[in-house]
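FAQ

Q: What does a record look like?
A: Structure on top, sequence underneath. For example:
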């Protein structure tokens, strides 16, 4: 979604802003722009499409620029008004002296717009953001102080915003403000930054101040002043960012997605580190801040999440119910927030989110907190808004994930669920001691098994080549790998735009089977060892009888299945309950290679965003 970066200092401002925006572009966007303070003037540049267009535009107009000393940049993911030059940020007031960039949605923009038009403002775009520019300009005309003007203006805004404002008459000052959208200030030596997310500034500084809702920051080259909604100074803590700039490099891989898929064995080792020492010691999960006696009696868990995180949540349900015998409900955050839920003070509510900024999940978490539930957050961003709302926080430590399609954050979430479920089982005493040891042993082995999958991807690539021209796919599984089927299908949809749907294999005959013929390949996930294997095999036979082409993803060594399936993708043997951490990997790769064959923009699929900060 949208991204903001601002800079005041001695470096090449254009370069800093372009670099910052480049590091945010994985979030998804359709246009880009920047405003530069240059020798008493504010100059604006905007382009449609990728950042390279903005870079080329700036290169072509280089001679217009003297020596910019500050600026604000933005990438836009259209919400109000189509992706067009006129709707791209920055937006200006009627006279063009004041510029603003904005992330979020202003819900009362129509009313404000009407009032401002009556006052004589000339609107040029269809955006909600332009309203902010006119509003702040109106307040500035009264207050003659940009900080006060911004503070007074945001009091009139309803909705979510992170904004940066500059004014021609106030050189080298950026005023930022936020509510329900992230914003941070990066502290440098004789230079300062402001941004909507850490990757925008990580190449220059690790010292950061996170703004809270209703705060305003005035950023100059040598100072940062943060105030609350009444203008009182707020003493903010400087935090040190946990990321390395290296995380934003592809390290020789063609795409971030491929790099991130290959990082998964180490990601799992990282998640287990310090929590699972050996098969004889209990799991150390001090992150769960609930008293042991409360956990012993815990009998209701609700997990809320969206997209891929929702699939991790579904796997989490199977794992927790299997290991700890606690009843678990799983729900999409966007559904949870618009109905009467049974959440109460005795419920443990788990929010799962890669980004920690997903608006639907944040709203759901806030609702759960209002009902006095204990909220545990599983996220890859311990610096996120969601993490700040947590009563207990399990940071999944997957490292920054740049590709829009989630891969390593998914496996890290799965592993967090295994640790949590084992922790609960150990407290409640619900698992047989030997079974518990087997599970821990297998968990420790998972990275090696995934390495085995990653060391030879030729069969997956061949399968991708063979099936890349099909327009529809069905993925089936039973038990815990239903989550894998849903996630595998989502990965294919997201990056190749091929219609793929995951089903519980037993549901096939209740409707979807009607669609089967030679144009609809069926991918079956078959993990022997439990009760699901034979059943999925029969469901695959049923698909074969309707002429569907069949792909098997299996750890079975039985060569007879090679006669039933057109393609068999083999993975190492793994306990069924732990298998989603392995089965998801070939499906990520299959989606990746199909998208690659089709020449799609793998890391930044159309219409998608890495952090979905609107409801
Ligand atoms: O950051 P979150 O995990 O809360 O995001 C939820 C979904 O938007 C996200 O998982 C989305 O489905 C990804 N594009 C999946 O690849």
């Amino acid at each position: 979604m949208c991204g903001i970066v601002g800079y005041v200092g001695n470096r090449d401002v254009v370069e800093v802003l372009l670099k910052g925006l480049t590091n945010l572009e994985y979030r998804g966007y359709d246009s880009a722009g920047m405003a530069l303070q240059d020798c008493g003037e504010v100059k604006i540049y905007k382009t449609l499409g990728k950042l390279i267009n903005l870079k080329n535009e700036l290169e072509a107009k280089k001679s217009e620029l003297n020596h910019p000393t500050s600026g604000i940049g933005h990438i836009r993911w259209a919400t109000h008004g189509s992706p067009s030059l006129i709707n791209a940020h920055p937006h200006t007031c009627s006279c063009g002296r004041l510029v603003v960039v904005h992330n979020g949605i202003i819900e009362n923009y129509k009313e404000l717009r009407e009032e401002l038009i009556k006052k004589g403002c000339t609107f040029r775009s269809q955006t909600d953001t332009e309203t902010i520019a006119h509003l702040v300009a109106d307040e500035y005309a009264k207050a003659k102080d940009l900080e006060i003007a911004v503070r007074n203006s945001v009091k009139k805004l309803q909705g979510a915003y992170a904004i940066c404002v500059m004014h021609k008459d106030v050189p080298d000052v950026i005023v930022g403000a936020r509510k329900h959208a992230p914003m941070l200030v990066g502290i440098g030596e004789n230079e300062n930054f402001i941004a909507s997310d850490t990757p925008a500034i990580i190449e220059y500084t690790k010292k950061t101040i996170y703004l809270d809702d209703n705060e305003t920051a005035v950023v100059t080259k040598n100072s940062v002043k943060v105030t609350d909604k009444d203008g009182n100074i707020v003493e903010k803590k400087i935090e040190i960012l946990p990321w390395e700039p290296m995380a934003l490099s592809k390290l020789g891989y063609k795409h971030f997605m491929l790099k991130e898929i290959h990082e998964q064995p180490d990601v799992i080792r990282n998640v287990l580190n310090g929590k699972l020492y050996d098969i004889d010691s209990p799991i150390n999960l001090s992150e769960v801040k609930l008293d042991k006696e409360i956990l012993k009696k815990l009998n209701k868990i609700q997990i809320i999440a969206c997209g891929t995180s929702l699939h991790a949540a579904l796997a989490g349900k199977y794992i927790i119910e299997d290991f700890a015998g606690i009843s678990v409900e799983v729900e999409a955050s966007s559904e949870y927030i618009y109905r009467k839920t049974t959440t109460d003070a005795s419920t443990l509510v788990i929010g799962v989110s890669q980004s920690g900024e997903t608006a639907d999940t944040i709203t759901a978490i806030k609702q759960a907190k209002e009902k006095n539930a204990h909220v545990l957050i599983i996220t890859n961003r311990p610096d996120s808004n969601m993490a700040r709302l947590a009563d207990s926080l399990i940071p999944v430590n997957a490292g920054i994930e740049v590709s829009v399609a989630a891969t390593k954050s998914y496996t890290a979430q799965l592993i967090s669920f295994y640790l949590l479920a084992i922790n609960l089982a150990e407290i409640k005493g619900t698992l047989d001691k030997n079974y518990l040891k087997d599970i821990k042993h297998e968990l420790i082995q998972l990275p090696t098994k995934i390495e085995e999958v990653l060391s030879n991807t030729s069969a997956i690539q061949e399968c991708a080549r063979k099936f890349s021209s099909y327009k529809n796919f069905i993925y089936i599984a039973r038990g815990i790998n239903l989550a894998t089927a849903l996630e595998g299908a989502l990965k294919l949809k997201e990056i190749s735009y091929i219609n793929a749907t995951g089903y519980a294999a037993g549901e096939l005959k209740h409707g979807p089977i009607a669609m089967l013929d030679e144009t609809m390949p069926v991918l079956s996930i078959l993990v022997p060892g439990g009760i699901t294997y034979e059943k999925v095999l029969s469901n695959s036979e049923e698909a074969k009888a309707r002429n569907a082409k069949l792909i098997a993803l299996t750890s079975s060594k039985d060569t007879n299945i090679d006669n039933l399936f057109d393609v068999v993708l083999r993975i190492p043997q793994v306990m069924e309950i732990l298998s989603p951490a392995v089965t998801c990997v070939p499906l990520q790769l299959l989606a990746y290679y199909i998208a690659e064959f089709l020449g799609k923009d793998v890391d930044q699929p159309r219409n998608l965003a890495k952090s979905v900060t609107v409801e």
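Q: Is there anything notable about this one?
A: The chain has a mean pLDDT of 94.
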